[in-house]
Structure formats: C-alpha cells, structure tokens
Design goal:
alpha/beta, Aspartate Aminotransferase, domain 1, three-stranded antiparallel sheet, 38% helix, binds pyridoxal-5'-phosphate
Length: 402
C-alpha cells in the first residue's frame, strides 16, 4: 500500500498567523497563562460589536436563509455593491461583474485559480498578507515580490519595474495595507496602473480596509484611475469595517474591457457555481452594511474605538527606545522595526517575547518580509491594555539579544 505523505501542492503553503507561535500561545493558555493575542485582526474578540444595522437584517431575514442563493450572490446585494464601487469611481461595471464570496479569502482563492497558469508570475508586495502568497502558490503561480519603501510603505515603483518579465501576468496591491497600515498615495497608484496598462497585467487590489482610513489620508480605488483597457479586480468585504469576521462576507468586482472580463468570468463562474453560493444570510446584510457608513466612520474618528487605541499605541511607542515605526493611515496594524542588530531570527524573537511577557505578535517573516527585525502589532485591545503591552515589549527588547 502506498504510504500517505501529504500532498506536494500544499508543501509551501503556510499560516504564520495561526502557525507554531499561535499553537504555543494556545498551549500556554491551556496551562492557565493569560495571553494577550495581538496576532489576528479579529475585532469581535476585543469588544467590537456587530452594528445594529446588521442585527436588524438578521432579525428580519432569518427565515429566508434556508435556500441556496444565486452562485454570484443575491441580486439586490450585488446592485448595492455595484452602486458602492461606481461611487468610488470604477466605470463600466454591471451586476454580472460582481461575485459575493465567503470572505475576501474565498474570492482571492477563486481569482488566483482563474488567472494563473502553472509558472505564470504574479507580483506581490513584500511585506504581504499571506492569504495572497498562499493562494498564488496553490494556483500554481510563481510569486515575485516587489519592495515597499520602509519610510512610507508605499510600493517601490523602480523595484516593480525591475521585476517584470514576459511571464508576469498580474500585480497585487493591498490598499490600505496589512501588515503596514499604509494608504497608498494617488501618484504611486497612478504609476502602478500605468505599469499594468503598459505590460497588459491584471491589476488586483485588495481593499478590505477601505472604510478604515484615518485623518487626512485619501483612499483611492486603483481601478477608478486605471486605463479602460486594463483588466482590474477589486476585492472588498465586511469582516473589518462592520466587525463580522466570522460571518464570512466578501466580494470581488471585475472591471475593464469586456473581452478580458469574459475570459476571467468564465472560469470564476465555474468555481463560484461549484461551491453553490456564498452564505445566503450574509448576502442579505450587504445593502444595510454598505448604507451604514457611520459604523466604520465612527470607529476611525476621534473618540472612536480604533482611533483611540491607535493613538494610545503611538503615544507609548514615541517614548520607546527599542522600536521605530511608521504611523498607519488605515486598518489597525503597525509594523515596527526592533532596533537591535543582534536579531537574526524573528520567529525565535517572537517566541521569546511570548514566553517572557505572554504577548503574542507575528514576526515579519510571516508576511513574506526578509529583514529579521520586524513585528506586526494588532491595535485592537483597549487603550490601557495596548499601552501596557508596548511598555512590556519595550522592556523586553531593552534586554534582548540573540
Ligand atoms: C488584507 C486582507 N485581505 C483579506 C483578508 C481576509 O478577509 P475575509 O475575512 O473577508 O476573508 C484579511 C484578513 O485579515 C486581510 O487583512
């Protein structure tokens, strides 16, 4: 009998965020330790509530969920998504360009499978949210990482240009970004859109955090400024803006010339119909959620939960000698550097921090980042907890060597 050794296609797939460090933290928790989990962007765990706008739809629609819905999604919900992205400037789209999915995660999976042949190259940012690298690997694509400027975390345009080959088929941006929290400048987006046009690349933009933008940062949806002949895919969802990660509600929008859209649509249709439909109940909440811009806006405004937690982290980080950072303009992450030349192994650094201070953060390497001195901090716990966590980390890093 053939020995079972697992499958080769998943050998390179990894989950840092829910990997060995997380397992160790859970083990410590089961032993009675109080672990502060700054590893996942999961607002519900930290007191962020589902908004009333969504609760109302649940109460009303509970009994409508017994049936499968359309494989692309409920029409009324796709109409609202259409309206939302049209308002954001994406042109020439209709309801057939929209797919409602079980989270952006499922959309990323379907999309990469629908655009990558074996060996096709896809440009991904470094650092990158690992969903995308994993999906690209599973689709048989070859990942080529482009750098981002550590001073602003905007993509490095020259580096992108230097990484283009005749095998490059797509480029991804994550805007606002996880793990850096950057909101990309319009001039940078325009240059990326031009590169995509000149090289006939599919331009993919993960905009799940587009409603979580602070102060004067301007969120521009890249598909709205792309050339009309560029094939664009914009992804979005409600996990973070409406605190409903567990409900799994996302979507993607195809825009660009019809001849290109129809090729991708044909393959996405197969994958979307294969999984029958996205969760019907979450389909129904989309119109109410997208009309409820107040919920995300309140969170990122002065006095709001995200705004105040972020402010507390900055106040404390500004007092630290051990870390440098760039203020996030969107989402709820920062990606500080530890000022310590002895660090060579960031996973070990985070494990040592976990054992010493009961704080779980993710190392830069879990985000396809090469330098060994970065961590991603999730700024979701309340301000006091966040401040104490930064003080603890600073004390730890003051003494730490490898
Ligand atoms: C950039 C980015 N894209 C996608 C996702 C996944 O979102 P969803 O819950 O819609 O699957 C996340 C989750 O953290 C994310 O940070």
């Amino acid at each position: 009998m053939k020995k079972y050794l697992g499958v080769n296609s998943l050998e390179q797939v990894y989950s840092g965020i829910r990997g060995p460090l997380y397992e160790e933290a859970m083990k410590m928790k089961s032993e009675g330790k109080d672990i502060l989990r700054l590893n996942t962007g999961n607002p519900g765990v930290f007191g962020f509530q589902m908004p009333e706008s969504i609760k109302e739809v649940f109460r009303e629609k509970m009994c409508d969920t017994v049936s499968y819905c359309d494989f692309r999604g409920v029409k009324a919900s796709r109409d609202t998504i259409l309206e939302y992205h049209t308002k954001n400037g994406i042109k020439n789209i209709d309801e057939n360009d929209i797919y409602i999915t079980n989270g952006v995660s499922e959309a990323a999976n379907m999309l990469t499978k629908s655009i990558l042949n074996d060996g096709d190259e896809i440009l991904l940012p470094s650092p990158c949210y690992s969903l995308w690298s994993n999906c690209a690997i599973m689709a048989g694509g070859k990942i080529v990482f482009y750098k981002c400027d550590e001073k602003t975390w905007n993509p490095d345009i020259d580096d992108i240009k230097s990484k283009l080959t005749d095998k490059t088929v797509a480029i991804l941006i994550i805007n606002p970004n996880n793990p850096t929290g950057a909101v990309y400048e319009k001039s940078i987006l325009k240059q990326i859109a031009d590169i995509a046009y000149e090289n006939e690349l599919i331009l993919i933009s993960d905009e799940i955090y587009d409603r979580l933008v602070y102060e004067s940062a301007e969120m521009v949806s890249i598909a709205s400024i792309a050339n009309k002949d560029t094939m664009c895919v914009t992804l979005n969802g409600l996990s973070k803006s409406h605190n409903i990660c567990g409900l799994r509600c996302g979507w993607m929008v195809l825009s660009g010339p019809e001849n290109k859209k129809s090729v991708i649509r044909k393959d996405i249709d197969k994958l979307a119909s294969m999984r029958l439909c996205a969760n019907s109940l979450t389909n129904f909440i989309i119109p109410a959620a997208l009309k409820d811009g107040k919920t995300p806006n309140d969170m990122v405004s002065p006095g709001g939960m995200l705004y105040e937690r972020r402010k507390a982290v900055f106040e404390e980080l500004d007092k630290c000698d051990t870390m440098t950072y760039v203020k996030n303009q969107g989402a709820f992450y920062i990606f500080p550097a530890i000022k310590n030349p002895t660090i060579t192994d960031d996973k070990k650094m985070c494990l040592d921090l976990l054992h010493s201070k009961n704080i779980l953060v993710m190392p830069g390497s879990c985000f396809d980042y090469d330098e060994p001195n970065r961590i991603r901090i999730v700024m979701l716990p309340d301000a006091k907890v966040m401040k104490n966590a930064i003080i603890d980390m600073d004390n730890f890093f003051k003494e730490y060597t490898q």
